[in-house]
Amino acid sequence: MSDPKQPGASAPLPKTSVADGGELHQRDAATPLTTNQGVVIADNQNSVKSGARGPTLLEDFILREKITHFDHERIPERIVHARGSAAHGWFQPYQSWSDLTCASFLADPNKKTPVFTRISTVAGGAGSVDTPRDVRGFAVKFYTDAGNFDLVGNNIPVFFIQDAIKFPDLIHSVKMEPDRGFPQSATAHDTFWDFMSLMPEAMHMVMWIMSDRTIPRSLRMVDGFGIHTFRLVNADGRAKLVKFHWRAKDGCLSTTWDEAVKIAGADQDYHRRDLWNAIERGDYPEWELSAQIFDDDLADSLPYDVLDATKLIPEEVVPLTPLGRMVLDRNPDNFFAETEQAAFHPGHVVPGIDFTNDPLLQGRLHSYLDTQLKRLGGPNFHEIEINRPKCPWHNLQRDGHMRMRVARGRVAYEPNSLDPDGPRERPDAGFRSFPAPEAGEKRRVRADTFADHYSQARLFFRSQNEVEQQHIIDALVFELGMVDTVAIRTRMLGHLVHIDDTLADAVAEGLGLARADADAITPAKAPFDMDESPALSLHGRVRKTLRGRVIAVLVTDGVDPGLVDALRSAAADEGATLEIVAEKRGGVTDASGGRIPADHALAAAPSALFDAVAVVATKDGAEALADMPPAVQWLMDALNHLKVIGNAGADALLAKAGVPRQGDGVVTIGGAGDAKGFVTTARDEQRVFRRPH
Ligand code: HDE
Question: What's the pTM?
Fold first, then answer.
């Protein structure tokens, strides 16, 4: 586990200090409460009145300042990715990559670059639930010593559309419908599928969003992708094309759909809480930054265009080169100041990294700067602490809303002769665009090389295992089943026919349609079969680890405390945490008369919230649980959500919940000696996909 106190890691602020304008002010018990002007407040309970029962006076500047500030506490939420959670950490390359790029954060294996990473959902508002079916944003701000670099990606390597001009339409279709104001944070409605069904280019992304990638177990267990093709440029000006990937060290893991729905009801902050708690516990999430590096010749040889964000390059064609690792080891001190005010922008690049002509990326280069002006209120958002570079920065920009820097001197222009020490351009070290030759007619046009919309959708579907394919089918049946307009369902079916026959037939069957009901759609370009890419299967890449996972043990009065301790230490040996669930929050009395405190009351902690579960009960206790509907539901859900289940004396409850007593991820725990076996089964199985579900 990484040490946050190592040199280069961002050290946590002392708990008794506040960061204010970059200065630390120590506080102690005698620190007075003041107004924003520094006037000490004598009474923070009562406003100034004319007589005890008289009117409040307008002159009460303390009241007015406080209420006015409160009235303005919100800023516009992000139009997309409004709901997100973030943490601080660092990035360190494995070696020097200076032959590839002059980006300074990739040059020195001994250098740690501070980062701030925000992972988000796309469609819902800032207060929406954490577990809808949705893409996750994956935005990393590197505070490099050559300026800030933002890698603003998603947890899926492709996107819905090919040209930025369609983005407002896409987002309007997925957000709540404008007349009725619902549904919040859901793709399962008419306007979204209407738009999808009219956008053949979205079909590859449709396959991804209907897969388990969009219902992650934890923000710590998602991969990230830069999506677009970028350029890495070295000091000699030589460039390579590159696609960035973040690989979660503990692997990707997803919930089942039913589980995601139940989590949404039980804990709408599930992902935010999980990330926060993991970092507080010292289970620092970690990702490996990798890159697919290739040149123009290879790009030209591919049967799709690397400038088309609806296409990926299979890893079997261009393998990943691991560049370095990122560890998130510090929670924000203040959600608003940091997570909410963080301004990411794909246009924040550093020397050594450059853009390509991907028309989606080009549109983003406008949008993010524009959005920050509105959201953060003006052109000085880079002066807000979370956005400020950590390297020196000097220029001749001046003034504007909320300017914080006090620039000195009379010279705010260049060239000048009056300020010889003022900032000057540096041709030797400054950012230089890669001199890609460009020429062409000025036209509103889409390249012919972008015209194949089905081959990669087919590639993705066929590269999934049977269980994963079934999940995609189930998700499509569910989502299209929520669409009221029949014509949208049949139009979508018309697209699925071009992707895969089994898929189209199964979805038609699930919707109660016949294959013949599918709209006749003529592809702009006939799809072709590509070699399957096993790397696209999530299940193929699940990691057998319990690091940072949570195991719940449901206990009753009279249980053996030694067994509970054995389970706790077996879990700890695997890096997992054990949490006790009991009928009452006060806990239970064990066989030796001691107390086992509970972390959760049963009614507040459905098994959906945990990675694996065990029931440790006496015979009487198990019979009592079997009479409690929440306990029966707890175990039924654990079974249906494919969790490994440990059974210590709980036969009566298992029988009532319809859980088999042994096998398929159900482990008998006869005594303390079996604790390890249960925990290692949970580690090795992760999710028991063999079970019917
Ligand atoms: Fe974004 N996107 N986007 N997007 N996006 C925003 O910027 C936009 C796209 C992504 O944690 C906004 O600061 C356009 C692709 C993330 O703060 C906005 C287009 C990818 C985040 C915006 C795209 C993303 C955003 C809203 C089509 C994956 C959250 C608030 C051309 C590579 C960053 C903000 C955070 C946020 C525009 C497409 C990822 C409106 C116009 C493709 C992770 O500027």
Answer: 0.95
